Amino acid sequence: MAEITIAGVMRAGAYSPNHIGNDTAIFNAVAEHLRKRGCIVNVYSEEQLIAGNVTEDIIINMCREQKSIGLLQQMEDAGKIVVNSGYGIENCTRERMTRILMGSNIPQPESLMVNTNEMVIDSLEKGGFTQCWIKRGDFHAIHKEDVTFVRHPQEAQGLLHEYFLHGITRAVINKHLVGDLVKFYGVKDTPFFHWFYPYDLGHSKYGHEEINGKSQGIEFDIEQLKQICQDAADALDVKVYGGDCIISPEGDIYIIDFNDWPSFAPCRDEAAPHIAKCILNHINNCK
């Protein structure tokens, strides 16, 4: 059997806030598992991808730079195999994600999508958005301020104005949900799925876990959580994914964030071989 040669494009450090080491570790672990299965894996940076140095027909990647995503989409359109798809990565940007999940009936918080120069106080008050989350709509979160909890509509209006002044033109406003915060990781078409309470384990990116606080251990259907996450992955077109959800006091599940190829930090060793298997299965299915 001919050797499979794969380009592996790592995530630029600017798009790994507080997780550069973890993102590098999961990527290297997956590359090593692919090598153990007889693949050649050549590793590149996003800068090298943009510079045109990636010529392989199979590309695995953790890219987040907008130029990188556009190039991955062009490569995919030209017939190259790309995991995660450049289109899937773009789908995980906030506004696109919200619209796709809404259109796919994936449970998530009530949301408004607005221009950052809009007056929104009346709309928030009318919709019962007392406490809410303001999230930049155009891209993945890079800075802590890109996802911000606000306590009343007036504070939301002020934050939108700050976004506007910083050149962020669109925002998503999610109604705050009370309940247990749960983080999850999954790999499509494999049995791998991992969930945990991030606050209880001190797992944090920006400290947002403190808003919901210590988990109460609300009972919920784990199989339903897996199915919701799988449905979201299908709708967004990503194979390697993770995210966050809220378990309401009634045990209902709501997706509040969904990410393409996260760090898998608490379950890296377990996840890596499944990610490698997912990639190889996809390569074989594309032949």
From the structure above, extract its key features.
single chain, 287 residues, alpha/beta, Dna Ligase, domain 1, 3 domains, four-stranded parallel sheet, 10 helices
Pattern of helices and strands: EHEHEHEHHEHEEHEEEHHEEH
CATH architecture of the largest domain: 3-Layer(aba) Sandwich
CATH superfamily of the largest domain: Response regulator
Please tell me the overall pLDDT.
Answer: 91
Helix content: 25-40%
Q: Helix- and strand-based class?
A: alpha/beta
Oligomeric composition of the shown chains: single chain
| Broad CATH class of the largest domain | Alpha Beta
* Whole-number tally of structural domains: 3
Residue stretches low in confidence (pLDDT < 50, at least 5 long) are none
Record the strand order, biggest sheet: 2-1-3-4
Strand content: 15-25%
**Fold-level CATH name of the largest domain:** Rossmann fold
Count of DSSP H/I helices: 10
Please give the radius of gyration in angstroms: 19 Å
